[in-house]
Amino acid sequence: MGLFFKSKNKTGAMPRPVQEDLGVSGNAYGIDLGTSNIKIFNSQTGKIKVAKNMIAIQNRKLLFAYGDAAYEMYEKAPASIKVSRPINYGVIADINNMEQLLQSFLRDEQRGVLRPADFFIAVPTDVTEVERRAFYDLVRDAGVKARRVMGVEKAIADGLGLGIDVKNSQGCMIVDIGFDTTEISILSLGGIVLSKLLKTGGHVFDQAIVTAVRREYNLVIGMKTAEAVRLSSHSQGGRGTTVVYGRDIVTGLPVERILSSEFVEKSLEEHFSGIADQVHVILERTPPELSADIYRHGLFITGGACQEEGLAQKLQEECRLDVNMADAPVNTVAIGLSQVIRKKQYRNLAYTIEGLAE
Question: What is the pTM of this model?
Answer without folding.
Answer: 0.87
